[in-house]
């Protein structure tokens, strides 16, 4: 079933002081199926973050249609969970209270909130850290709380913008493995922005390579790798080949600019 439909999406920004406008996203059209994991990759400035924030309802668009489960996106909503690169936890609340706060804000019954928050923290392996404040957690742990929080209210669509970009290499790989196992268990629909092609191949069902000036989807790759994905997945010849193909596609687009 179709989860997200985007048709002829166009976004412009004012170009400096003149009345001209720069087209950042140009007639983008695609659909994402329920339970699909899709990554957006492409050169810096091709419009990945802009596209994600329009889907999140955090930015307006000029033209085109965006629908989640057949309903127009008109602004932010609890049907879409968002995880960004920077940890957006509330520093004055514990890990558990950060998750509970999101559940309260999205209207969960008060009696269920405590249990639900702990269940989500357990899912990301943080049940022992529930009473810690963000300042007492490592970067990877903070990002796990942010993922637990985004998953807690069961969004139809999870939107992730470079969520592991600020982490060290080992923590990043651990977070990829955690995310893929959570995704395999919860059957989420995810749109994931990353600069890291290896990360995109490891996590995704499909990879959209975007081109710039104006931003558009240039090539769509299917990722025919078996699941569950494990550390050994990286060594499969198909993995290595696909990674090279996607990188080549981004590079050729940069050369053509
Ligand atoms: N508020 C804004 N006003 C004007 N131009 C903007 C604004 N936000 C983004 N842009 C421009 O839109 C283009 C796309 O930006 P965006 O951040 O979406 O790209 P990106 O692919 O996510 O880049 P990166 O990979 O570097 O994060 C860039 O050229 C950027 O300069």
Automatic annotation (TrEMBL):
Family matches, as Gene3D superfamilies: P-loop containing nucleotide triphosphate hydrolases
UniProt keyword Transport, yes or no: yes
InterPro entries documented for this protein: AAA+_ATPase (IPR003593), ABC_transporter-like_ATP-bd (IPR003439), ABC_transporter-like_CS (IPR017871), ABC_transporter_ATP-bind (IPR050166), P-loop_NTPase (IPR027417)
Gene Ontology molecular function: ATP binding
Domain ABC transporter: 4-237
Assigned keywords, A-Z: ATP-binding, Nucleotide-binding, Plasmid, Transport
UniProt-listed CDD domains: ABC_NrtD_SsuB_transporters (cd03293)
Pfam families according to UniProt: ABC_tran
Coiled-coil ranges per UniProt: none
PANTHER family: ALIPHATIC SULFONATES IMPORT ATP-BINDING PROTEIN SSUB, TAURINE IMPORT ATP-BINDING PROTEIN-RELATED
Family under the similarity heading: Belongs to the ABC transporter superfamily.
Name of the featured protein: ABC transporter related
Taxonomic placement: Bacteria, Pseudomonadati, Pseudomonadota, Alphaproteobacteria, Hyphomicrobiales
């Amino acid at each position: 079933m179709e989860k997200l439909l985007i048709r002829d999406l166009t976004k412009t920004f004012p170009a400096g002081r003149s009345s001209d406008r720069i087209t950042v996203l140009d007639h983008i059209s695609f659909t994402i199926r329920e339970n699909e994991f899709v990554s957006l990759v492409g050169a810096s400035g091709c419009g990945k973050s802009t596209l994600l924030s329009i889907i999140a309802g955090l930015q307006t668009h000029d033209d085109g249609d965006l629908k989640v489960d057949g309903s127009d996106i008109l602004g932010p909503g609890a049907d879409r969970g968002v995880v960004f690169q920077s940890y957006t936890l509330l520093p004055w609340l514990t890990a558990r209270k950060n998750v509970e706060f999101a559940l309260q804000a999205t209207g969960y019954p008060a009696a269920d909130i405590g249990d639900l928050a702990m269940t989500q923290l357990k899912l990301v392996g943080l049940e022992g850290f529930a009473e810690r404040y963000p300042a007492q957690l490592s970067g990877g742990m903070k990002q796990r709380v942010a993922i637990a929080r985004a998953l807690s209210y069961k969004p139809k669509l999870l939107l992730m913008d470079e969520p592991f970009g600020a982490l060290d290499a080992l923590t990043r790989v651990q977070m990829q493995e955690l995310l893929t196992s959570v995704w395999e268990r919860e059957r989420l629909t995810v749109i994931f922005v990353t600069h890291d092609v290896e990360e995109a191949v490891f996590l995704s069902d499909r990879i959209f390579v975007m081109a710039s000036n104006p931003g558009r989807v240039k090539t769509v790759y299917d990722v025919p790798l078996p699941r569950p994905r494990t550390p050994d997945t990286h060594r499969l010849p198909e993995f290595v080949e696909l990674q090279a193909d996607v990188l080549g596609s981004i590079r050729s687009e940069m050369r053509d600019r």
